[in-house]
Write a structure and sequence with these properties.
The complex is a heterodimer.
Chain A (H helix, E strand, L loop, with lengths): L17 H14 L15 H5 L3 E2 L18 E6 L2 E6 L5 E5 L17 H8 L5 E5 L9 E7 L6 E11 L4 E10 L7 E11 L4 E8 L6 E10 L4 E8 L4 E10 L5 E10 L4 E10 L5 E10 L4 E10 L6 E11 L5 E10 L4 E10 L3 H9 L4 H17 L5 H13 L1
Parallel strand pairs in A: 1-7, 2-6, 5-7, 6-8, 7-9, 8-10, 9-11, 10-12, 11-13, 12-14, 13-15, 14-16, 15-17, 16-18, 17-19, 18-20
Antiparallel strand pairs in A: 2-3, 4-5
Chain B lengths: L5 H11 L10 E3 L6 H10 L4 H14 L24 E3 L13 H9 L14 E7 L2 E5 L2 H5 L4 E4 H7 L1 H7 L10 H9 L4 E5 L8 E7 L10 E6 L4 E9 L6 E12 L4 E8 L11 E12 L5 E8 L4 E4 L2 E4 L5 E10 L4 E4 L2 E4 L5 E11 L3 E10 L7 E11 L4 E10 L5 E10 L2 H9 L4 H17 L4 H15 L5
Parallel strand pairs in B: 3-7, 6-8, 7-9, 8-10, 9-11, 10-12, 11-13, 12-14, 12-15, 13-16, 14-17, 15-18, 16-19, 17-20, 18-20, 19-21, 20-22, 21-23
Antiparallel strand pairs in B: 1-2, 3-4, 5-6
Helix pairs in contact in B: 2-3, 3-8, 6-7, 9-10, 10-11
Classes of the chains: A alpha/beta, B alpha/beta.
């Protein structure tokens, strides 16, 4: 019996989601949970997911949501155990609705036939938000989606689905923030799908910080369509969870559409942190760039799978990708699969991947100047990650992320 | 297109592929199809010992449980393994005792292919050749000369009879029959190939070479090559292949196993020029090859150089298993696909020993409607401290309808390892072309000039005679790709 459908008696699909739910369940049972033989999941083993029995998060007490303080002015939507509980400080030009009022937009971008976890997410569609930025509105304040989990002793399954639309000429900074309270050994699974449309000349800057409990699992898919001259920029910092995958699939669907997909991961313990990207250049003069850096210690495993696809006739395109990882221990592991798939001739594409350890000479140099080995290591790691962080445009957010990297 | 135009096109591609002729020779052919009886028949024809037949049958049994892999970026019609002939040999009444007794038709064939089977008097720049025609080796030159130094160079069938201990010890030790679908098929039905043994401390006095030719219709060629380099030895080995021009696809599934012991070095060069099919993608050889070298000894070295211009479909990943400490693996590749050719090729570098180093230089050129994929693996095991890898994969696209793909896998389990991978894809820049045209060089010559420059890094690793042939091949392969 599939662990995800064992204890689903309590789950009540709302009326509006019934059709989508059935479709999702059929698709998920059809594809099944990925195995090590599934090429797209070759390096991230999900066997542990199967041994858990999942419970659906009951509507939690709204009062239990801790007041998360962000060091910058922001609009905020709070989620508790996957449920939307509160909205605060909404600026003009931003429309927020429950998904039930916008269900026609669901699965328009996410492909549930090829993404098993998007199918599972559809099967348990219940809540989520629909976010729309009005045309030509530049939203100054970042919008924070704060997801909090209080698992207690349960293996909660949280399925979150958001639909985000940026209309022509609009701009938004979106921040996703994940946290939990309770035992660090809490187990739960966050399974999230974001469906994002960036219309003509619009720009979305998408930031994410993932710091789940160290036995929890986190799987997220961001399916993004970028139209003519639109820009999608993202940065994801991953630190927590047992198995976590942040997957970004961008389709550049108009002339001069742009994507920048960056990420950093810092890990220890037993975790497997997976960053997967797939950028499809479908139109001429589209550009994309990716920079992902990781620091892997303990028995952890870092995974990077990045793909640049250039469709026939998508000429005068440019795609670059660089992944670098630092290994800190003898038992750490790094698996990388950067992929280029090119069907047009007038393109410039490149990818690079490198992995290595901290330079002993540099460490020695610093130690000989009175810096302790530990401090020297920290400084070198910071320096190693600096260039990814430098690509965060918003100064407040850049400082905040640097702080998160250090302290949480 | 009217039927009138048809022959003209065939002629055109015939010009390009000058090895497309068929030798009219009586052949001794096994019945069509594949079953245990056929395998027993092949084994009996080769007068093989029982252990080898048992091994073949085990492989066949295992093969029946396997499914053909589909992960490569290749699309081709399903191969019907029962409609092929698995054994075809030119008829000879008595086995030739010397080169003079080899069928003159065969000698003529090889002469036409530019492969001299006559041993020349002059010793400068000579190459010893093992010529394999369909399922059998027809001649091996310079054997006596090589034997003086203890080098064994003969067909694998002879090796099975004359050096059974060596064959038994090493056959299947690098590529076991369970390895993959095509290797398993080869283990069951392999017919001939070359065997090379370089004794301890010997530097092989001449280049060794094997020339493979598929002639008979609907015949699969399954050759198997085994090279053993004992401590402190060195050998440079060349391989070439051609096939007649036919409308049907022909299957070629080979295995090359190389064992390199302490301080030994093997250099393996291939110029693969199987019939690539015509302009519209009709016919051509399906080339599914498993090549692997095990650097078992400390300080051992293997260097693969390949120039891949032929075949309708290529599936080939010459690999290095770097077991010995300080062992070195190198892979230099130029792959050119034109018209409707497809190639999925690359390498595997498995670092097991300490301070092992590997280098991958891959240059891919796609033109016409062809598709090409570089697929490679670099794996550093936890014990391989100090391992070092550098990979560079460059692709050049000529024309709007071709594709070029890069799929490297990098798996690092050792913090002391340094791994670097770089890949770029681009087209011939207008500026480069303009520069050449301006100086009165025709467009076609300019393209070949630029392409040769692009491949230079790999070509310089080929032995002299091969390099010249390969450079010519590149030009021929790209004919008609511009304008």
């Amino acid at each position: 019996m599939n662990p995800f459908f064992k204890n689903n008696d309590d789950f009540q699909t709302p009326q509006w989601a019934k059709g989508l739910s059935q479709e999702g369940k059929a698709a998920f049972l059809g594809i099944g949970l990925p195995t090590p033989k599934t090429e797209a999941w070759k390096y991230t083993k999900l066997r542990e997911l199967e041994t858990d029995d999942y419970e659906f998060a009951p509507l939690a007490d709204k009062g239990a949501m801790p007041k998360e303080e962000f060091p910058f002015a922001c609009a905020k939507i709070d989620f508790l155990n996957g449920q939307w509980v509160k909205t605060s400080n909404l600026p003009q030009g931003l429309t927020i609705k429950p998904l039930s009022e916008a269900f026609a937009q669901i699965n328009q971008i996410a492909d549930i036939q090829n993404y098993p976890f998007a199918a599972l997410n559809s099967a348990y569609l219940e809540q989520g938000v629909f976010i729309e930025v009005a045309a030509n509105r530049q939203i100054e304040m970042p919008l924070v989606l704060s997801y909090h989990t209080i698992p207690e002793n349960r293996n909660l399954l949280e399925n979150i689905r958001n639909v985000i639309i940026l209309n022509t000429g609009s701009q938004l900074d979106l921040v996703e923030y994940y946290s939990y309270t309770g035992e660090v050994k809490s187990r739960y699974l966050v399974n999230q799908v974001n469906e994002i449309t960036v219309k003509e000349n619009a720009q979305l800057n998408h930031y994410k910080f993932q710091n789940e409990a160290y036995k929890a699992n986190h799987i997220a898919l961001h399916a993004v369509d970028v139209e003519t001259a639109g820009t999608y920029k993202s940065f994801c910092l991953q630190k927590g969870a047992n198995i976590a995958r942040n997957e970004t699939k961008v389709k550049l669907k108009g002339l001069q559409a742009k994507a920048q997909v960056d990420g950093a991961y810092v890990m220890n313990g037993w975790a497997t942190l997976d960053t997967t990207t797939d950028i499809e250049h479908l139109f001429p003069q589209t550009t994309s760039s990716q920079l992902i850096k990781g620091v892997v210690g303990g028995d952890a495993k870092g995974v990077f799978q990045g793909k640049i696809h250039i469709a026939p006739n998508a000429v005068q395109t440019e795609g670059t990708q660089l992944h670098k990882a630092l290994l800190l221990s003898d038992t750490a592991e790094i698996d990388v699969k950067p992929e280029l798939e090119i069907f047009a001739d007038d393109v410039k594409c490149s990818h690079g991947a490198a992995s290595g350890e901290l330079d002993e000479e540099q460490l020695f140099y610093m130690q000989s100047r009175g810096i302790s080995r530990e401090d020297a290591k920290k400084m070198l790691i910071d320096a190693y990650l600096e260039d990814v962080f430098a690509r965060i445009e918003n100064e407040n957010l850049r400082a905040w992320f640097k702080d998160l990297k250090q302290n949480s | 297109m009217s039927t009138k135009d048809q022959p003209q096109i065939i002629d055109e591609s015939g010009d390009k592929y000058k090895y497309g002729f068929v030798t009219d020779i009586d052949a001794d052919t096994a019945p069509m199809g594949l079953n245990a009886e056929i395998i027993k028949l092949i084994s009996a024809k080769k007068q093989e010992p029982e252990w080898l037949l048992d091994w073949r049958l085990k492989a066949f049994e295992f093969w029946q449980t396997m499914t053909e892999p589909t992960w490569a970026k290749l699309s081709y019609d399903k191969i019907d393994y029962q409609s092929l002939y698995y054994y075809s040999a030119p008829k000879q009444k008595v086995a030739p005792k010397s080169l003079d007794e080899v069928d003159s038709e065969l000698l003529k064939t090889y002469e036409k292919l530019g492969i001299p089977l006559k041993e020349q008097e002059a010793l400068a720049g000579v190459v010893a050749v093992d010529a394999v025609f369909d399922s059998v080796s027809v001649a091996t030159t310079y054997r006596a000369k090589l034997a003086e130094q203890g080098v064994i160079f003969c067909s694998i069938s002879e090796a099975v009879r004359e050096h059974p201990d060596l064959v038994k010890k090493y056959l299947g030790s690098v590529v076991p029959y369970t390895d993959n679908f095509f290797a398993c098929l080869n283990s069951a039905v392999f017919t001939d190939g070359s065997f090379v043994y370089i004794p301890k401390g010997v530097r092989c006095p001449m280049e060794l070479s094997t020339y493979f030719r598929i002639n008979a219709k609907n015949t699969g060629q399954f050759e198997r090559t085994l090279i053993i380099a004992e401590d402190d030895s060195y050998v440079s080995y060349l391989e070439g292949c051609t096939a007649p021009q036919r409308d049907e696809n022909q299957l070629h599934a080979a295995i090359v196993e190389i064992v390199v012991l302490n301080n030994a070095e093997v250099k393996y060069s291939t110029v693969q020029n199987w019939y690539p099919g015509d302009k519209d993608g009709k016919g051509g050889v399906y080339n599914f090859v498993t090549k692997r070298a095990a650097c078992r000894g400390a300080n051992s070295k293997i260097s693969w150089t390949q120039v891949e211009t032929g075949s309708a479909v290529t599936w080939k990943y010459p690999s290095c298993v770097l077991q010995g400490d300080n062992s070195v693996g190198e892979f230099y590749s130029v792959a050119i696909t034109n018209n409707h050719q497809q190639a999925d090729t690359g390498t595997k570098m498995i670092h097991i020993g300490k301070n092992t180093t590997s280098k991958i230089i891959s240059k891919g050129i796609s033109a016409g409607f062809s598709n090409q994929t570089y697929r490679g693996l670099v794996r550093v095991s936890p014990k391989a401290s100090g391992a070092r890898n550098y990979s560079q994969c460059d692709s050049l696209l000529i024309g709007k309808n071709c594709g070029s793909h890069t799929v490297p896998y990098i798996e690092n389990r050792n913090k002391g390892a340094v791994i670097e991978h770089e890949a770029t894809t681009s087209k011939i820049s207008d500026e480069q072309l303009f520069y050449c045209l301006q100086r009165g060089i025709s467009e076609e010559d300019a393209v070949s000039l630029i392409v040769n420059g692009f491949c230079k890094e790999v070509m310089q690793h080929l032995p002299m005679e091969f390099a010249i042939e390969a450079a010519k091949l590149i030009n021929i392969s790209l004919e008609g790709s511009v304008g």
